[in-house]
Design a protein that fits this description.
The structure holds 2 protein chains of 2 kinds. Chain A is α+β, with helices and mostly antiparallel strands. Chain A has 8 helices and 18 strands. In chain A, 54% of the residues are buried. Chain B has 7 helices and no strands. Classes of the chains: A alpha+beta, B mainly alpha. At the A-B interface, helix 3, helix 6, helix 8 and strand 17 of A face helix 2, helix 3 and helix 6 of B. Chain A: Its main location: nucleus.
């Protein structure tokens, strides 16, 4: 495989930079919005490049004069204490998601403070990252000291939220065998509101609980942020998760905007959770990419995971994983007839791959 | 219905690995939506076609953007622009799929709500077919 990986277009920008950093390959992206009225990189993409520069050492980024092509030579992931202003074009989730993929392979444990929008309907919210995405890493052996603090909330359009992400470092990952999705035993969630009536949180929770009457173990926290913790804009959002007996997570979330009733947001979020549960699998749609990446980076051993249907984003991720690491997944589609686990959802996919045996050479061995 | 479904799956199933890793002529969206038989090369192909016709008309993309005259070629170019706006440019780099409110009302249906009951610990253990 060649040392240079080439792509076209502005899509899947973050994952390609992350995969280039992990694989040490040179990344060349061309035709970034070259036909657009406003060509080149957007401010949030440039901001993400700056963040990448902060957490790595020795990386060079060359951006063409028009901003429509970049060449990225990755450096060493250095981590440490970093703070970054994410702006208000994209939420914190946009920046945090790739950091989670890089964090475990850093030289020093990451301690990253991000300012900006905590919850919106474009990027995954910090709540879902904390309650669903981070626990996925535990299965790969990344546990102690993995934290996300959310002291301040920030709703769009002005943001003003703040989160701190701490990630331990590992030398190698563990392979996973996660094919039994179990049965859902509990439902958790967070409903928050800032700069609106404090009852908004409770109204969202009540509406969501009305739909999720399958189990008794439901606990959705209703939080009202006050004072300087409430950011710069009014807003409210709900994040829900269902956890199974085998620690499979399903998540759904929705943020409310001006003129929307909190009951509607709670109700729709609960329905979205049911749709996610119906898809089945051991890994829900938003965690697919992270889990698949960690499987590829695992030791030279077989990892197996069951997923519901693949999202378009994940399919492109699979292709990019092949381009950077040369690893492909074996995908078996299980129907009702040949399903192996009792009570599993129909039509799930069994994803199998052999890890490339990635070793975090930055971590000092003592 | 059952037959159509089985035919649909039997045709689609063994191909998923090839669709993803093969010659990559379908976009991820096309693979997910299953429109892989009728319209191959839809997204990329249209772009390429348009680019080819750019050269045929002899107008560069820059010139077309500047003056909106009544040339036939201009129409073609404006169309191309809209196309890239709607399909590619609208795609957002986020793993969260766009919020779709349509179809969520189906959960008002009690039968449907009951259909996923067995995915919960409160459901029955002897699932038919398991």
């Amino acid at each position: 495989m060649s040392k240079v990986v080439r792509f076209e277009g502005h899509n899947y920008f973050r994952q390609r930079l992350v995969l280039a950093t992990l694989s040490g390959k040179i990344l060349k992206i061309e035709k970034i919005r070259s036909n657009d009225a406003n060509p080149g990189l957007r401010d949030f993409e440039a901001s993400f490049l700056r963040l990448l520069e902060k957490v790595t050492n020795g990386a060079t980024i060359e951006i063409s004069y028009t901003g429509t092509s970049i060449v990225y030579k990755p450096g060493v992931i250095i981590g440490g204490k970093v703070s970054h202003d994410c702006g208000t074009s994209r939420a914190i989730g946009y920046f945090l998601e790739p950091l989670i993929a890089l964090g475990p392979f850093s030289k020093n444990p990451m301690n990253v403070t991000l300012n900006g929008i905590t919850n919106d309907n474009v990027d995954i919210s910090v709540d879902t990252i904390r309650t669903v995405l981070l626990p996925q890493l535990k299965k790969f052996g990344i546990e102690e000291g993995l934290e996300l603090d959310i002291p301040n909330r920030g709703a769009p359009p002005n943001g003003g939220g703040r989160v701190t992400f701490r990630c331990p470092i590992v030398r190698t990952l563990k392979p996973i065998q996660f094919i039994d999705e179990g049965r859902i035993k509990r439902i958790r969630g967070v409903a928050y509101c800032t700069r609106v009536a404090p009852q908004f949180s409770n109204r969202m929770v009540d509406a969501a609980r009305g739909v999720l009457d399958y189990v008794n173990d439901i606990n959705i926290a209703a939080v009202h942020y006050q004072g300087d913790k409430s950011g710069l804009s009014p807003g409210f959002a709900i994040s829900l998760l269902a956890k199974s007996t085998t620690s499979a997570y399903y998540s759904a979330e929705l943020a409310g905007g001006p003129g929307q009733a909190p009951e509607d947001i709670g109700l729709q979020a609960a329905r979205m959770l049911l749709s996610e549960i119906r898809k089945g699998g051991c890994v829900d749609s938003i965690s697919q990419t992270l889990v698949l990446l960690m499987m590829v980076l695992g030791p030279n051993d077989v990892s197996k995971v069951r997923v519901g249907e693949l999202t378009p984003f994940t399919i492109q991720y699979l292709r990019d994983l092949q381009d950077f690491f040369g690893s492909t997944f074996k995908i078996i589609q299980e129907t009702d007839k040949d399903k192996t686990v009792l009570g599993a959802a129909p039509n799930t996919l069994l994803m199998t791959c052999v890890g490339i045996g990635y070793v975090n050479t930055n971590k000092k061995t003592t | 219905m059952a037959k159509a479904e089985s035919v649909f799956h039997s045709r689609r199933r063994p191909n998923l690995i090839r669709l993803i890793y093969g010659d990559r002529k379908y976009t991820p969206e096309q693979i997910v939506n299953g429109d892989i038989e009728e319209t191959p090369l839809k997204l990329k192909g249209e772009e390429e076609d348009n680019e080819a016709s750019d050269e045929d008309f002899g107008t560069g993309p820059g010139a077309a953007g500047e003056d909106d005259s009544d040339d036939d070629g201009e129409d073609f170019l404006t169309l191309k622009k809209e196309d890239s706006d709607t399909t590619v440019a609208k795609m957002i780099d986020s793993c969260k799929s766009t919020v779709e409110f349509t179809g969520l009302e189906e959960w008002d249906d009690l039968d449907l709500k009951e259909s996923i009951r067995d995915r919960f610990v409160t459901g029955s253990l002897d699932v038919p077919g398991a």
